[in-house]
Amino acid sequence: MQIFSIVLTGIAVVFIVLLFLIVLMILMGKLFNTNKKAKPIPVKKEPLKIMSAPEISVGKPSSANSSPSTGGRVPLNGTLKSPHSTEDLKPTAEIVAVIAAAVRAYSEASGKNAKIISLRKRETQKPEYRSRWGGAGVSESMRPFPR
Amino acid sequence: MQVFIDTIVGLWENSVFSGVEPLQFVMLGISFVLMYLAIVKGYEPLLLLPIAFGMMLTNIPGGGMFHPEFFAEKEVNFGQVLSEGGLLDILYLGLKLQIFPLLIFLGIGSMTDFGPLIANPFSFLLGAAAQAGIFITFLGASLLGFSMNEAASISIIGGADGPTAIWLTTRLAPEMLGPIAVAAYSYMALVPVIQPPVMRLLTTPKERAVKMRQLRPVSKKEKIIFPIVVTAIVGFIIPDALALVGMLMMGNLLKESGMVDRLVKTAQNELMNIVVIMLGVTVGGTATAANFLNLNTLLIIGLGLAAFVAGTAVGVLFGKLMYVLGGKKINPLIGSAGVSAVPMAARVSQKVGQETDPSNHLLMHAMGPNVAGVIGSAVAAGVMLSLFGN
């Protein structure tokens, strides 16, 4: 009988302590959770300009302005207009070089000829995407450690 | 010629071969098996390898590395240990004085993210439910004839927390430290084998396919206040658990404060590694033939398995209860992660969930009960200590 009472007491105490912690965590969440829903950023609706997608070929950059109709090379200091974005991107030479290098490395590794045909900026951050903090938490939690 | 023979006989009598017991050879064989499991099979090698080597060192007679008789009495004669003891005797003081397990908990806290738990505090309930396996095993061990102290030490294996098991066993039943530590770490490595059949048996495919809502983001303030609050609450309610929970939370606070990167790096790396080496070889050093090779060890191994199965089952069943009461929004599989083998048990929940629906990502949801189980097993150990420690 004593053994059963010890078992029930132990389980009850563990639950009571953790229930207490649950209440405190909920209160803490209400007090200190500063993450509020962001107001949606108003997007200016402009008629979409339908144009052929520019190409960034892996090779020498061209100093001349490119014409989308030729499907040729994009100048390093030029702008890229994507039919799907309302905002022009202005990549620097370094960014284009990094992207080109990555595409080239992929092409060589896979044996396939790859090209970047558009750069688009993500307009709004959807709430279900994990933040960097959350991503860091995932990697920390996944890290195995000795117990 | 007679002098030659007498010299050879004298050398033989002075060597260990004349005094070795057959059971010590058996222990050496067991240590080789554990080394094989650690090195070749990869079963918790960080601790199992030092444990296995410590077991080998202590069972080679004449080495004088460990003297169990120095620690047989409640009061340790420190002068005798320091003057006559071997290396493992001196390192054993780190266990006897509860230093090593607590420092390991400091390191664990510095590597743990309690964000998923803070985002969903009801994960604490799943962490608590899985600790019922500890008390069910305590019941079984008591009915099998173990004393209360021994039953409590055996049952804490179900907490799936090595430092907690070592900490409690050192206080309540130090003579059983070797088999309990070996059983605890072996079963923790076997979590991916032990848990899935229990999880599949107790859940339906429909329940396993439940997709849970994304967790809310947790602010830095919450993550800083959490360890302080938990330490205070647990310390006030169960003072015997303060050492374990306090060190765990201190490590976590060091990490979350973001102000003491050097200390965090030391806690996560150098401190953990040093203490793991010393703890492992010392625990192995206590596994002498007399302590290890008896019927109790077999019973401990069986009860340890029962503890894991019971903890998993109760956790999943509680998860099913929350599934029903929560409007079928909680996947019962995350209940098994309350068995605090972090992060293995959470990965198992993810894996079993993906067997039913590959697009179902339960890992972060399971991390909440997983880390809650660490706190829950420390609280359970504190309860055991307060009941039987005096």
The poorly predicted ranges of chain B are none
Largest sheet entry of chain B:
none
Give, in order, the helices and strands of chain B: HHHHHHHHHHHHHHHHHHHHH
Q: What oligomeric arrangement do these chains adopt?
A: heterodimer
Greatest interface: A-B, 40 and 69 residues
Rg of chain B over CA atoms, rounded to whole Å, is 23 Å
Helix content percent band of chain B: over 70%
* Category from helices, strands and their pairing of chain B: mainly alpha
The biggest sheet of chain A amounts to: none
Shape of chain B: globular
Describe what is shown at a glance.
Chain A is built from three helices and no strands.
Highlighted features:
heterodimer; A: 147 residues; mainly alpha; 3 helices; 41% helix; B: 390 residues; globular
How would you sum up this structure, described in words?
The complex is a heterodimer of chains A (147) and B (390). Chain A is an all-alpha fold. Chain A has helices spanning 2-32, 93-110, 132-142. The longest helix of chain A has 31 residues, at 2-32. By secondary structure, chain B is an all-alpha fold. Chain B is built from 21 helices and no strands. Chain B has helices spanning 2-14, 22-39, 45-58, 78-84, 87-96, 100-111, 115-119, 123-130, 132-143, 148-155, 162-172, 177-189, 191-202, 205-208, 220-237, 242-257, 261-285, 289-292, 295-325, 344-356, 363-388. In chain B, 55% of the residues are buried. At the A-B interface, helix 1 and helix 3 of A face helix 6, helix 7, helix 8, helix 9 and helix 15 of B.
